[in-house]
Amino acid sequence: MHKLIESAIEAANHGDKNKAMAFLKQALTANPKDTEAMLVLAGLVDDPDHKRHVLNRLLTVDPVNLLARDELLKLDRPAMGAFLTETKAVALRQTVAKPSTASSNLPKSQTQNPAAGKSITQPVNVKNSFTRWNWVEESPTVKPQVAVEIDGHAIIEKPLIFKYPLFWRILIYFFAAVFGCIGLLVASQNVVNSLPFLALAALMGLIAMAFSPVVEVSEAGIRTSGMLSSSEIRWEGIATIRSMPVKRQLELSGTNGKPVNISTQVRGYPRLVEIIRQRRPDLFGGTPAQASLRASSPSHSSLNETRIFSKGLLKQYGISFILIPLSFFAIWIAMTELQHRSGALIVAVICGILMVLPLFQVSSIKVEPDELTIETLFEEKILRAREIKEIRMQSVRGRYGRVTHFVNIILVTGQKYPVQGFSEGDEIIYGTLLRWWEFYQDE
């Protein structure tokens, strides 16, 4: 352990938090990737948002640091609706000074800061002893729960539930029931005449099945269920992540070879992606081999590599191949059919606008160490992490219930760069960009 870190721990033990923070600042200035210094800093920080930022930055350097993951899990637990079934508090058991004998003078139990009254120890060591995964079927009065054990204390988890919006589900079920009833009534008079109504009822039933998936996220892992099937995967069992825009699904491949498919149309999907990113940051930005190995060495991190996301010509301008002939046809109608001139000119203008829009869309993203390049047809913007105010994933639900996701890069100046339609998937691009931004924004 670095002497500056040891000095910081000693100062914290004596209640001098400011002096401890000064030592840690020196250590991180000398080596911004010092994970031990980040762990001590996370123990000293009181603000939850600041603590989360420090832990996320640590995980970009060391994706499999269990202590950082467990403390991040502890921060996320209130959002996931966890509550203790025992009144007895869980004791903090492990201190920062484990890696070296030089820090053996630290007490085994947590050390309190007399000045601030806060724990200044290393994040709590939560044992990943998810020995039971008892999913309880959802009912009107009982929400599904998962029983897990942490440091010998039982915790009942209420998983976050992601579903299709209730309005659309009710609407589809209503039409399926209406067409089914009409078909049965007509069938009592004439079976042949009832076939179109029964066919519509069957079609609505299939659509209802597509609207039925439920995604449950707990501290143990993820479970998806539908009308005919269900599957589940633990956090540590996820090997790779793959976006499937055509199927509107996110595939989580397990180490056992069994994939779990998550519908991208459920309400709150961006939040679901963020939870996956926080729990398994190593799945984003690296190669599949790196993700499956979950390498702990910073040399394996994709932050030291250059990644390029590019749209193909057909993906970027494919709609123009349809709009160009349509616009020429509308112009020809406007010139030859005077009575239809107004309508034809409106169609031509709309086609022209739709053809121009792709010219201003992001066509390529290049992620390099401490540098991000965004390209459109008319612009090449080179950005540093500190020039970016926020990177977030957003959703827009259309008139007929379909959701479109995109990644929004918001600069400090207020300028926005929406990113959408890349073959790698919005989730992968979001995870890669956010991981890069969190790592370099303070440099």
What does this structure look like?
By secondary structure, the protein is α+β, with helices and mostly antiparallel strands. It folds into five domains: 123 residues, Alpha Horseshoe (Serine Threonine Protein Phosphatase 5, Tetratricopeptide repeat); 45 residues; 68 residues, Roll (PH-domain like); 86 residues, PH-domain like (Roll); 43 residues. The chain has 13 helices and 17 strands. The strands form five sheets. It has a four-stranded antiparallel beta sheet, with no helix packed on it. The chain has a four-stranded antiparallel beta sheet with strand order 11-12-13-14, covered by helices on one side. Strands 1-3-2 form a three-stranded antiparallel beta sheet, with no helix packed on it. The longest helix has 22 residues. It is flat.
Kindly provide the radius of gyration, computed on alpha-carbon positions and rounded to a whole number of angstroms: 27 Å
Mean pLDDT: 75
The tally of structural domains comes to 5
Q: Classify the helix fraction into a percent range.
A: 25-40%
What is the count of β-strands? 17
User: In the CATH classification, which architecture of the largest domain applies?
Assistant: Alpha Horseshoe
Instruction: Describe the oligomeric state of these chains in a short phrase.
Output: single chain
General shape:
flat
The major sheet is characterized as: 4 strands, antiparallel
The CATH class of the largest domain is Mainly Alpha
CATH homologous superfamily name of the largest domain?
Tetratricopeptide repeat domain
Name the helix and strand elements from N-terminus to C-terminus, one letter apiece: HHHHHEEEEHHEEEEEEHHEHHHEEEEEEH
Cα distance spanning the termini:
23 Å
Query: Which regions contain 5 or more consecutive residues with pLDDT less than 50?
Result: 79-156, 286-301
Strand content: 15-25%
Q: What strand order characterises the main sheet? A: 4-5-6-7
What do we call the CATH topology of the largest domain? Serine Threonine Protein Phosphatase 5, Tetratricopeptide repeat
Summed up, the helix count is 13
Secondary-structure class: alpha+beta
